[in-house]
Write a structure and sequence with these properties.
Layout: H1 14-20, H2 32-35, H3 40-65, E1 77-89, E2 92-103, E3 107-109, H4 112-119, H5 121-136, H6 143-150, H7 160-174, E4 183-193, E5 196-205, E6 210-217, H8 223-235, E7 245-248, H9 252-262, E8 268-270, H10 272-280, H11 288-299, H12 303-318, H13 322-329
Parallel strand pairs: 4-7, 7-8
Antiparallel strand pairs: 1-2, 2-3, 4-5, 5-6
Length: 335
């Protein structure tokens, strides 16, 4: 397996430290830098999912061509470097680097696991469930064997050493220390994968880099799980005394957990993407573009004018879509 952790694109967030020292409200226009990127959950999938899938593809290729033995004569199928590919994990596309195999006479040879994932969309959902369950419960040693079995890789290809190496890499990534990082923004995101829920935390440091901070199995409405996740961040170096911005999906348990672990003085911003999704969920599809555009336009305005536009939109929705209007007004002051 290749190194799990990587730093994503740099965001221009040097201003965050300056603004946090003054007034958290001044940060709100900068949130587009965060909210226009993947959500925290997407980031977890992108980083851990890529590494796990690439490990499975190596095992599947090994079934076709055999284990590499330096000096041993190659058979009709041989390794020919690697190439880029894309697989779907539920609704998310993950770019991977996969082995390239060739036959001496017939040319390109497919990797069975890769073809299976391309041709069966259900496999992607199942792999994603295995990944999130293993990472969120820290049961790392189950991830690779269960994934491999799902895509038809023989158990004989999965050595104990391979499982131990992959487990250590997942553990190193998921439980690493952040005391050397100046984390200024923490984005908490909850989502459901099949039969279970997970909560993920994504951080932005003072150099503008994104970091997957942690993940736990459980819903964002579960105060015990939320507090456990936040306390774990503190134990791994996130200073609870430092003032920082939190971005959440509107869950009361998230807000309560932040207050209890990090104190009530940190500015909290509702995720605008979640807000739009919630409001649009009460509307017919032919109204989505109009309402989405109106909300995005309001979010770009200065706070007072933006609030006025959103309240005006809520009044308009009240005429025929009371639930959508109520959803828009809920927590509006934290938008």
């Amino acid at each position: 397996m290749r190194q799990l952790y990587r730093t994503n694109q740099r965001l221009d967030s040097k201003k965050l430290a300056k603004y946090l020292a003054q007034d958290g409200q001044l940060l709100l226009p900068l949130l587009d830098l965060i909210l226009n990127t993947e959500s925290a959950i997407d980031e977890v999938i992108d980083v851990t999912g890529r590494a796990a899938i690439e490990a499975i593809l190596l095992l599947s290729a090994q079934e076709v061509v055999g284990k590499p033995h330096p000096g041993k004569k190659q058979g009709p199928v041989y390794r020919n470097g690697s190439q880029n590919g894309v697989v779907s994990l539920s609704s998310q596309k993950v770019r991977v680097n996969k082995p390239r195999l060739r036959h001496k006479e017939t040319g390109e040879v497919s990797i069975p696991a890769y073809e299976a994932m391309l041709n069966n969309s259900r496999l992607g959902q199942r792999i994603l469930e295995i990944l999130m369950k293993g990472v969120s419960t820290r049961n790392y040693q189950t991830v690779i064997p269960e994934m491999a079995e799902t895509v038809g890789v023989s158990k004989s290809q999965i050595s104990r050493e391979f499982i131990e190496i992959s487990s250590r890499q997942f553990q190193t990534f998921c439980e690493r220390d952040f005391s050397d990082k100046d984390i200024l923004v923490i984005y908490l995101d909850g989502i459901r994968f099949g039969p279970f829920h997970v909560i993920a935390a994504l951080g932005i440091d003072s150099d503008g880099h994104k970091h997957v901070l942690g993940i736990r199995e459980g819903a964002s409405e579960n105060s015990v799980v939320v507090k456990d996740l936040l306390n774990d961040l503190v134990e791994r170096g996130i200073d609870p005394q430092q003032k920082r911005l939190f971005v959440i999906d509107g869950s009361k348990a998230l807000r309560k957990g932040i207050n209890e672990v990090f104190g009530p003085d940190n500015p909290v911003q509702r995720c605008r993407n979640h807000k739009m999704t919630n409001v649009l969920g009460y509307l017919h599809k032919d109204q989505h573009d109009q309402v989405r555009s109106a909300m995005k336009a309001a979010f770009q305005l200065e706070e007072k004018n933006g609030m006025a536009q959103l309240n005006k939109l809520a009044d308009w929705l009240d005429q025929e879509h009371c639930s959508a209007a109520e959803s828009l007004r809920e927590g509006l002051k934290e938008m």
